[in-house]
Amino acid sequence: MNRLGLFLVVAVVAACNNSPTAQLGPVAYVSIFPATKVVQVGATFPLSPTLMDANNNALSGRVITWSSNTPAVATVDNTTGIVTGVATGSAIITATSEGKTGTSVITVPGPATKLKFTVQPSHATSDSPIAPPVQVAALDAQGNLAGSFTGSVTVALISHPSGGTLSGTTTVAAVAGVAKFTTLSIDKATVEKATVDTLRDTLTAAATGLTGATSAPFTVSGASPVSIVVTPNPATLPANVTQQFTAVGKDARGNDVSISPTWSVRAGGGTIDGVTGLFTSGTVAGTFTKTVVAQFKASASVTFKDSATVIVPGPSAGPAPVVLGTAGNYVILAQSGISNVPTSAITGNLGLSPAAASLITGFALTLPAGGTSSTSDQVNGNVYASDYASPTPANLITAVGITRNWLREILAGSLSPLACTSGRTRFSSQRMSRSKVAQRMSGSSRSREVLPSPPRRTLS
């Protein structure tokens, strides 16, 4: 028993002599965290030292002293390592233990000279607060946060192609150099799927005596729809003719909301692509009320629907009428340009495609931002061009295509006599002179190219 007791004592002593604590050496390295730090005037910050021996063992319980090479800029408590900002500039703080040292560079920023968006406005939803909240910081000349700045910062919306308005608290007092805007919102969506910066939203920030800042471009999507609208409605189509139907959501303010509906035909009149909404009229004549249906499922429990009527004209006695379809929406429909010598008085819509609106001259057009049509004091209607906002370009392509089809029929034979009915026009084989066309206008307006030069429709 005595031998066993002696063995246990020796084993315990040997284990104690081999413990890590017994092997710790003198201080070999000193480091300070953080290695750099911005400390505002009058503010304090505790530095954290780490001591290591030659074997990279962490050491504790060793004596550390602290010093600053520029106490006029930043001081440090000799025993705790707490730094205090004193004046603008930089200072090196040194920690010393057993003859080894580590350093940290302290910067005390100067007065604010400029602004910067530190939290940019991100993709937002109309009429909802921009999240995360926009933040604007005041910086000194070297780009350091000027934490002593407590002035007011004001943000403004400088670019919104859809004519939106910035709401919420737009002027905020900075706290420790940072102004945080928690209630900003924009009431209208940006142009759908806009990728070009000029079609996106931009904010500016300003403060008295400071250089302002401009945010990165961002987009605003429409709010959740409360209804959808199908166009055109109604649509008058001859047999076996295609028509592109479109559906757009409307939010509570009437703003457009992009949706991806499903399409169906429920009352005959033709067939439709369930994804694209491309309709093909059938061969049976008639009025098919609310037959084209668009359906959008907003959530598991909310579905919106709208429908459109299709009219397929039947045969009539005498020469077949020319069915204008959507081309009938225009009293002047041209390809290369429309010129006018003021002053005219035109009743009805004007359309130009594929040429751009710049080739519609003499009308002094007014186009709202992101608008689908322009207006003129000389036109009792709207003016449409291929470079206006969607869906105008697609609608014009459809109308021009329909017009080309019936012009081919006119050029192939005689159509008589001239008569206009709802949605269709009959033509005589004689051209109407420009003077007769002008009788329907006050002033002088002409199309450079109302498509090729067959008989022309009476303007009204």
Word description of this protein:
With 460 residues, this protein is mostly beta strands. It has four domains: 18-108, Immunoglobulin-like (Sandwich), CATH 2.60.40.10; 114-221, Immunoglobulin-like; 227-312, Immunoglobulins (Immunoglobulin-like), CATH 2.60.40.10; 322-447, no CATH class. The chain is built from four helices and 41 strands. The strands form twelve sheets. Strands 33, 34, 35, 36, 37, 38 and 41 form a seven-stranded mixed β-sheet that branches. A four-stranded mixed β-sheet has the order 2-10-9-6, with no helix packed on it. A four-stranded antiparallel β-sheet has the order 16-14-19-20, with no helix packed on it. A hairpin with a 5-residue loop joins strand 30 and strand 31 (303-312). The radius of gyration is 38 Å and the shape is elongated. The protein starts with a helix and ends in a 13-residue tail after the last strand.
Uncertain segments: 3-22, 192-198, 414-460
Q: What is the rounded distance between the termini?
A: 127 Å
Number of strands: 41
Helical stretch tally: 4
The rounded Rg comes to 38 Å
Question: What share of the residues lie within helices?
Answer: 10-25%
